[in-house]
Specification:
The complex is a heterodimer of chains A (about 230) and B (about 260). With about 230 residues, chain A is mainly alpha-helical. Helix content of chain A is about 85%, strand content about 0%. Chain B has eleven helices and no strands. Chains A and B meet through helix 1, helix 2, helix 3, helix 4 and helix 5 of A and helix 2, helix 3, helix 4, helix 5 and helix 6 of B.
């Protein structure tokens, strides 16, 4: 029964890769093609010299960041969740916490078929809700603009990410203080001594995550009596 | 037609809307397949329904924040393109930065509608797409191989006697997330201490204060569902904590 379940899941997973890769290829063509379609329509093609200069200035940073995102998020989100997240974006502030929250809510273990299903459903629903809200928002943008852009509300929307990470910090730190405190301390020292790093916080996820995983491994070995 | 009219033309809405529609269809396809696969491997429908409800509830607030990003960019790039960018691969913190760099490289002194030309606009569009699509390209080329390698590692750990995906795999995922949160919380603390010069203690305190309120609110939600057994509190704990922390940001700004 368990074997049949894994075979069925394996078949599902392979098709997910096929559809996911096809979707990635399609989106790459559509996104790179759109500026040229606009250029053709209005007789103003992109300036490749300007694109190259700006890419060297800022694009390389995002290239490394994207590669890191691919390596980090793929194991966390599973195949289906990753393909959709990379297509729809807003991973760190929305898709990843949403998937982890769902995983915790229904208590599935990482790496299991159930986790893959939950992650995919969670991210698909999240992406569809965002698309719907943005579409509705765009439709009523004009009357909505004065309310949402009211200066009094700006601090709320400027601080969506800290609000999220504060809430998640409590949830994840309790019960894992031995794993959480050292990376937090190291990050505090690093950002204090080298404040220039604050603008590249996403890059610092790698050493912080690596340290947390190392501590988790040591803790796991200690609890489970060596490499058993 | 002026540049403003071009950027907000029905052609632009149709082009961007069509691409967003394709993305929505891809998401529906993944959702339906995952739901059916879940039933096939014996998952309870009730569990999957809870995932749908909690994910939708979780997404509403951040999506309004993303909508604000569309509004913010609409002043310089029109409405349709920011709508597309923030629906596909986009990220709030990314778009403005790249658009600004592309505008400067195109010879504009600022990312502003008053200076915008159609040539500069298509250049900005191309750069915004190029810079952020590497995770898409890497997924396209290496996604399957990377995923299969991860599965092999998990199968290996199963042979060693631990349940599939349980044991260290589960702890490693939690640790990765803890590391991620630590990087951001660390940046808020570092920003407060050295944001305006090393050890000046005059940096932006707001992110840290908002994060602290978020953590406190989460503690209350956890207390409600763990100690008081209010099941509803678990589903809305993250979204509710965020909302409270965001309201706190408004209040703190008014007071201080």
């Amino acid at each position: 029964m368990e074997e049949q379940k894994y075979l069925q899941f394996e078949k599902y997973n392979q098709t997910t890769h096929r559809i996911g890769r096809l979707a990635c290829a399609l989106m790459t063509v559509l996104l790179l093609g759109a500026p040229f379609v606009i250029g053709w329509r209005y007789g103003a093609m992109p300036d490749f010299g300007a694109v190259s200069r700006a890419y060297l200035a800022i694009g390389l940073v995002w290239m490394i960041s994207s590669a890191a995102e691919f390596l980090i998020y793929f194991p966390m989100l599973g195949a289906g969740g990753s393909y959709m997240s990379f297509i729809t974006g807003n991973i760190i502030n929305l898709k990843l916490p949403c998937a982890v929250n769902s995983r915790d809510l229904v208590e599935v273990k990482a790496g299991t078929p159930e986790n893959e299903i939950v992650s995919t459903i969670s991210i698909a629903v999240s992406a569809l809700v965002t698309i719907t809200i943005l579409a509705i928002g765009v439709m009523i943008l004009i009357p909505l603009q004065p309310i949402l852009q009211a200066p009094v509300l700006q601090p709320a929307f400027d601080n969506v990410v800290p609000a999220l990470f504060g809430a998640l910090a409590y949830k994840y730190y309790r019960g894992h203080l031995d794993i959480a405190l050292p990376p937090l301390l190291v990050m505090c020292i690093l950002f204090t001594l080298v404040p220039g790093l604050i603008s590249s916080t996403s890059m610092m996820i790698i050493p912080s995550g690596a340290l947390a995983i190392l501590l988790a491994w040591l803790s796991y070995r200690k609890t489970n009596g060596g490499l058993q | 037609m002026s540049v403003v009219q071009n950027l907000n033309s029905s052609f632009m809405y149709m082009l961007c809307g069509s691409i967003i529609l394709v993305v929505a269809l891809i998401c529906v396809l993944f959702l339906v397949r995952a739901w059916r696969a879940g039933i096939a491997i014996g998952m309870e429908k009730e569990k999957m329904r809870r995932v749908v409800v909690s994910s939708a509830a979780f997404t509403v607030l951040p999506s309004i924040g993303i909508l604000l990003g569309v509004i913010a960019l609409s002043g310089s790039l029109g409405v349709p393109w920011p709508w597309l960018r923030l629906s596909v691969i986009g990220a709030l913190h990314y778009e403005t930065q790249v658009a600004q760099a592309a505008a400067e490289a195109s010879g504009l002194s600022a990312l502003s509608m008053s200076q915008m030309t159609m040539g500069a606009f298509t250049t900005i569009c191309l750069l915004m797409s190029m810079c952020i699509m590497w995770s898409l390209i890497l997924s396209l080329i290496f996604g399957k191989a990377y995923s299969n390698r991860l599965l092999k590692v998990k199968k290996g750990s199963k042979k060693e006697g631990s349940p599939a995906g349980g044991g260290f795999g589960d702890l490693a995922m939690t640790a990765m997330f803890v590391g991620l949160i630590s990087a951001y919380v660390g940046s808020y603390i570092g920003g407060l201490i050295s944001g305006n010069g090393r050890f000046s203690f005059s940096g932006d305190w707001m992110p840290l204060a908002v994060a602290a309120v978020g953590a406190l609110a989460m503690a209350v939600f956890v207390w409600l569902y763990e100690k008081k057994k209010h099941v509803w509190a678990e589903s809305f704990s993250v979204a509710g904590s965020m909302l409270i922390a965001m309201i706190a940001a408004v209040v703190l700004k008014m007071i201080v």
